[in-house]
């Protein structure tokens, strides 16, 4: 059960091998969340992550494999994850949706396959997974969903607009879902990090405002306690993007980051 | 047994429920039966299921996510008062307020009062509640001579003599042994409903604690309100009130005709929930300052109404919304006299973590109750209202849990919404005995609340098959 601080005792992590998800799992286990279902694409990495999580003190860790390019698989994957916990009489307190890919090569927009993949992995699959998770949590009577969105979806820019558009989609879907679930006992937290130093961004130029994976994890945990529906990491980005949203296109184009 | 308190059909609806602290919420199907037989049917056909009274427990004890919550407030008949013995039989959903309105005019008072009249008899038994007279009179269940318990395996008529095991598992058992549909309570005789109250104001906590130990010997009721927001060494300065039932001869002439007056039944209601709460450190500091200096340095024998002495908070029906949407947690713990330094220690740790303490009430306990999960034990109990969103609060409380458990103390489950399962058995060493009783009356693990699942008190249904067999062997004799 989620306690008064929104701390869960069990969690399903979709995209468990992501750096941000790993940092979050570590914090959750330390807070007493010791039943986890970790779902990810790469079998080897997933097994290693399960080992690591067990070593940090989790008493129950199960793994599920999935590939987010197949939108329909989301239903089955979510069901499988829930079943792993519910069959043992445990509720699913938290669902984390963390899988995502960057897809912003200069000419990527010319390649329909890349566009499709980017939109599927970042928007379609997560949305179907959110829908399915929300239904199950609703039946359960309580639970929290955490979705990794991005500031890239708040003011879309030329340099990563396919990714940004997909994130804008999932961000909007998750916020709508939060509204739809009001009063149901199910909370949705949409996380909007700026630049985070993870595997995803290695090799890129680090902008003046950058966070670590653990900064994001800490902000998520704090957001659980405050029941925040939107979490910006770092928090200052709320104001930065409040302004960014207003800027005319000619000016936005000239901002280097 | 008198007229019913709720009219019409039994009601059912899917609803979001939370405790008084409003910091945890979950949805369940809520049914409000109008007869004990309906309760019996529900308990034997639905799962998971838990009883709910007036929802005055602060945490998640009276909710059951995804399951059934039996709202007992539709069952609140009050039987005839036996004038010779002071015994009265009531339905489990009767509020103490309702019961009092029947008995006080005839000179009988509740044996134990919590800080609000808006709790049910079932809830009072399930939490084995204590009052300001614990050092003298013990806990609520110690004044219950008989109860009817609907369980998944049938209905039991219990007395402390006939089935002590199940009786004392139910007292303090947080609804996890069944639903109390009726109970017989021993009331205490009073000449008046007024209180004769001594007040003392102390500039620091040590002085107050020394005086409280003394007051215990001299007064039936005692409690101290602490100002934990005061700066520096004044943190924990206190106003102690100690009282006794006023005798008829002590009343001034103008009250003589109102000797058995009842508290007002109307309360103010705050019509909305302020999003961020109206209580903030500044407001509370200011309030405390006023409250502290308003209290007399020393006053003896002031005649006060029972309402102002026992239930000042009842003047506003829903004061809990003042904490805002995030809600609050109440941290109530008890430690023995040998660990009395923890009272100041806890306040100190919260202060150094910059957690505002909005309300602090200190009391002394007398003996332990035989209830397996009853909270009281000899020593000091401190209750603190803390905003649940305070940064750092989860970590501090976790550290404090450890200190309290190590010292042999415990936290109060009726107030809890955040304790973790690993310390539960240290704090409540008789937890294992409760499991045995549950095997007997609830082998399939039907009775479960969010609290019991959070704390791992109720087993997952996966183990239920195994437990069923053991229970079938040990069927019992008191069953109706
Ligand atoms: C302002 C305030 C002051 C308080 N002061 C005190 C105090 O001084 N001392 C003290 O001890 N407590 C105090 N409390 C706590 C309160 O007395 C307990 O939490 C009590 O259990 C609340 O009763 P309820 O009817 O609201 O029960 P609920 O909160 O609805 O339920 C509490 C528990 O009782 C169980 N339960 C309820 N009805 C039944 C039933 N018929 N059969 C079986 N189980 C049942 C529930 O399953 C749950 O586990 C205070 C609470 C408030 C809000
Ligand atoms: N890093 C940032 O700057 C930043 C900023 C804002 C938002 N975010 C978001 O935060 C989330 C986590 O990202 P991160 O920074 O932790 O990066 P990361 O370590 O690269 O994590 C991304 C994860 O997504 C998984 N994934 C990619 N394609 C997949 C597919 N087809 N099926 C299943 N899983 C797939 C990856 O699995 P594999 O290991 O198998 O590839 C990886 O575990 C993402 O949603 C990202 O968009 C990141």
Order of helices and strands of chain A: EHEHEHEHEHEEEHEHH
Number of helical regions of chain A: 8
Write out the strand line-up for the largest beta sheet of chain A, numbering strands in chain order.
3-2-1-4-5-6-9
Question: What is the rounded Rg of chain A?
Answer: 18 Å
- Heteromolecules bound: flavin-adenine dinucleotide, NADP nicotinamide-adenine-dinucleotide phosphate
Describe this structure in words.
Helix content of chain A is 45%, strand content 18%. Chain A has 257 residues and is an alpha/beta fold. In chain A, helix 2 (43-55) links the parallel strand 2 (35-40) and strand 3 (60-65). The mean pLDDT of chain A is 96. Chain B is of the alpha+beta class. Chain B is globular and about 60 Å long. Classes of the chains: A alpha/beta (257), B alpha+beta (480). The complex binds flavin-adenine dinucleotide and NADP nicotinamide-adenine-dinucleotide phosphate. Flavin-adenine dinucleotide binds next to strand 3, helix 3 and strand 10 of chain B.
What features would you highlight for this structure?
heterodimer, A: 257 residues, alpha/beta, seven-stranded parallel sheet, two-stranded parallel ribbon, 8 helices, 9 strands, globular, B: 480 residues, alpha+beta, eight-stranded antiparallel sheet, five-stranded antiparallel sheet, 15 helices, 27% helix, disordered C terminus, binds flavin-adenine dinucleotide, binds NADP nicotinamide-adenine-dinucleotide phosphate
Write the layout of secondary structure elements.
The complex is a heterodimer of chains A (257) and B (480).
Chain A: E1 10-14, H1 19-30, E2 35-40, H2 43-55, E3 60-65, H3 73-86, E4 94-97, H4 112-140, E5 143-148, H5 161-180, E6 186-193, E7 195-197, E8 210-212, H6 213-226, E9 230-233, H7 237-244, H8 249-254
Parallel strand pairs in A: 1-2, 1-4, 2-3, 4-5, 5-6, 6-9, 7-8
Chain B: E1 11-18, E2 25-32, H1 36-45, E3 49-52, E4 68-71, E5 78-82, E6 87-91, H2 96-103, E7 108-109, H3 121-126, H4 134-137, E8 144-151, E9 154-158, H5 164-170, E10 179-186, E11 188-189, E12 195-202, H6 205-218, E13 221-227, E14 237-245, H7 253-256, H8 281-294, E15 298-304, H9 306-310, E16 328-335, H10 341-352, E17 359-365, E18 379-387, H11 393-406, E19 410-411, H12 424-427, H13 431-441, H14 450-454, H15 464-473
The structure holds flavin-adenine dinucleotide and NADP nicotinamide-adenine-dinucleotide phosphate.
């Amino acid at each position: 059960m989620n306690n008064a601080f929104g701390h869960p005792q069990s969690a399903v992590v979709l995209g468990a091998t992501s750096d941000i998800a790993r940092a979050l799992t570590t914090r959750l286990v330390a807070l007493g969340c010791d039943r986890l279902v970790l779902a990810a694409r790469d079998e080897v990495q997933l097994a290693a992550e399960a080992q690591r999580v067990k070593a940090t003190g989790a008493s129950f860790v199960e793994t599920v494999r999935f590939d987010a390019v197949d939108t329909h698989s989301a239903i089955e994957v979510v069901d499988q994850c829930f079943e792993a916990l519910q069959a043992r009489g445990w509720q699913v307190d938290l669902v984390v949706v963390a899988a995502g890919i960057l897809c912003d090569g200069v000419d990527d927009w010319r390649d329909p396959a890349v566009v499709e993949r980017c939109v599927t992995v970042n928007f379609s699959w997560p949305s179907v997974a959110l829908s399915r998770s929300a239904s199950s949590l609703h039946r359960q009577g309580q639970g929290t969903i955490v979705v990794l969105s991005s500031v890239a979806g708040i003011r879309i820019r030329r340099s990563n607009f396919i990714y940004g558009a997909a994130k804008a989609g999932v961000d909007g879907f998750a916020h709508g879902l939060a509204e739809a679930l009001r009063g149901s006992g199910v909370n949705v937290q949409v996380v909007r990090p700026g630049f985070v130093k993870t595997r995803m961004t290695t090799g890129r130029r680090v902008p003046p405002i950058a966070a670590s994976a653990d900064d994001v994890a800490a902000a998520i945990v704090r957001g659980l306690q405050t029941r925040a529906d939107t979490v910006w990491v770092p928090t200052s980005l709320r104001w930065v993007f409040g302004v960014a949203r207003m800027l005319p296109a000619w000016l936005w184009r000239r901002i280097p980051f | 047994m008198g007229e019913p308190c709720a009219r019409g059909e039994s009601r059912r609806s899917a609803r979001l429920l939370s405790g008084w602290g409003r910091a945890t919420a979950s949805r369940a199907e809520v049914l409000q039966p109008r007869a004990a037989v309906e309760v019996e049917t529900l308990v034997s056909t639905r799962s998971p299921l838990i009883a709910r009274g007036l929802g005055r427990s602060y945490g998640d004890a009276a909710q059951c996510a995804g399951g059934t919550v039996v709202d007992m407030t539709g069952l609140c008949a009050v039987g005839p008062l036996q004038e010779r013995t002071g015994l009265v039989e009531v339905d489990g959903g009767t509020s103490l307020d309702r019961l009092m309105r029947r008995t006080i005019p005839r000179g009988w008072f509740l044996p134990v009062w919590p800080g609000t009249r808006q709790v049910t008899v079932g809830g009072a038994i399930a939490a084995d509640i204590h009052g300001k007279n614990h050092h003298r009179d013990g806990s609520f269940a110690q004044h219950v001579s008989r109860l009817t318990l609907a369980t998944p395996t049938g209905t039991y008529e219990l007395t402390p003599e006939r089935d002590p095991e199940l009786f004392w598992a139910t007292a303090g058992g947080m609804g996890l042994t069944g639903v109390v549909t009726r109970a017989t309570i021993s009331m205490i005789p009073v000449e008046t409903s007024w209180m004769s109250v001594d007040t003392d104001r102390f500039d620091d906590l040590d002085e107050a604690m020394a005086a409280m130990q003394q007051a215990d010997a001299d007064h039936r009721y005692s409690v101290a309100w602490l100002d934990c927001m005061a700066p520096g060494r004044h943190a924990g300065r206190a106003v102690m009130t100690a009282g006794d039932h006023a005798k008829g001869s002590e009343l001034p002439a103008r009250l003589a005709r109102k000797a058995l007056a009842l508290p007002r039944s109307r309360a103010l209601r705050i019509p909305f929930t302020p999003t961020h709460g109206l209580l903030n450190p500044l407001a509370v500091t200011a309030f405390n300052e006023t409250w502290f200096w308003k209290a007399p340095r020393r006053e003896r024998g002031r005649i006060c109404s029972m309402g102002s002495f026992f239930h000042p908070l009842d003047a506003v029906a829903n004061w809990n919304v003042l904490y805002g949407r995030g809600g609050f947690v109440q941290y109530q713990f008890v430690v023995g006299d040998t660990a009395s330094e923890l009272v100041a220690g806890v306040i100190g740790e919260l202060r150094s973590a910059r957690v505002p303490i909005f309300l602090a009430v200190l009391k002394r306990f007398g003996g332990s109750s035989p209830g397996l999960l009853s909270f009281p034990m000899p020593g000091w109990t401190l209750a603190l209202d803390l905003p649940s969103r305070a940064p750092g609060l989860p970590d501090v409380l976790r550290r404090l849990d450890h200190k309290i458990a190590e010292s042999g103390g415990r936290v109060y489950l009726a107030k809890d919404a955040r304790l973790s399962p690993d310390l539960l058995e240290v704090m409540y060493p008789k937890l294992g005995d409760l499991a045995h009783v549950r095997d007997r009356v609830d082998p399939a693990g039907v009775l479960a609340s969010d609290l019991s699942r959070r704390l791992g008190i109720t087993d997952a249904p996966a183990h239920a098959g195994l437990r069923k067999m053991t229970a079938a062997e040990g069927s019992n004799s008191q069953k109706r």
